[in-house]
Amino acid sequence: MTSTQTTPPTHSEAELLSLGARAFEAMGLPPGDAADVASVLVMADLFGLHTHGLSRVESYGERLASGGINPRPRITVSDAAPALRMVDGDNGVGPVVGMHALRAAMEAASACGVGVAFARGSNHFGPISPYSLLAADAGFASIIGSNATTTIAPWGGSDARLGNSPIGFGVPNPGGKPFLLDMAMSVVARAKIRNALKRGEAIPDTWATDSHGVPTTDPRAALDGFLMPIGGHKGYGLALMVDLFAGLLSNAAYLTHVKSWVDAPDQPQNLGHFFILIDTRRLGSTAWLAERMTDFAAILHGSPAVQPDRPVIVPGELELARLERHRAEGLALDAETLRLLYRYAA
């Protein structure tokens, strides 16, 4: 008896944007806000960052339903200085607040050469790389960060006091591939540990500790424990810096003041984000920047690879290659995410 394996259907970027927007509109978001959320999450999926893509419809949807997120926020932007914007997200969906802050920073950088936006009253805003790419495509170099729910113990501590806060850097490359670095402060994201638990797989003992601070290969024990920061005490210090900018300076919650979306899904998190943009057109012509960025990448690519089948890459190349491929060939989402999207959209 011959068994056949069904190939999952693929969807174009336009189809995913439409489906995502319809799903979030059905949850109560205005059309423009729903489109912003869909644009960030779909780009995450196109990059291959599926733990931060449209699968987030589940956690965002649960918090919208419980009243933990405001579906129709009145987001305000105020000028603290010519190049400085303060964004109050009014507890809106994170990507909505994030896109308002990105646009505010872009407007300030266009006027002043440098633009900074601090956002408060927000929630999980997806990965950083979509914002970095949007900024790069518009000619802006960027440093972008957000704080997060506490999942990491302070260096030498035995309980969670700081979040796995992501930070990203982007530099445009006119006519070529921009530099995009998007990283969190832990060795891996909790989503990877949750996925390992679902699959019944062990995890490397360098990913997390149990609740007593002892490294573990058990994903369930890891989820009850703490994530390990990158680079030991140096990663701890970098995580604090991100929270100082994203949480403290933005007048959002920080460290243990951030509410857990898992333990208190019906309460506002008051997450903070920061967007620091530089208008590269003030530094030189697009031809000047393209020539230097091309040379920069060539120097790195020219290093002989230790493993011939794994050549040296520049951060962002893998994600941008997936983006290009998925835009050309379509993208297959997992069945559960599709089911949730169609359920909400209907």
Automatic annotation (TrEMBL):
Entry keyword annotation includes Oxidoreductase: yes
Membrane-spanning residues: none
GO MF annotations in UniProt: oxidoreductase activity
InterPro entries: Mal/L-sulf/L-lact_DH-like_ah, Mal/L-sulf/L-lact_DH-like_NADP, Mal/L-sulfo/L-lacto_DH-like_sf, Malate/L-lactate_DH-like
Keyword Oxidoreductase: yes
Entry keyword set: Oxidoreductase
Domain of life: Bacteria
Family note: Belongs to the LDH2/MDH2 oxidoreductase family.
UniProt name for this protein: LDH2 family malate/lactate/ureidoglycolate dehydrogenase
Highest classification ranks of the organism: Bacteria, Pseudomonadati, Pseudomonadota, Betaproteobacteria, Burkholderiales
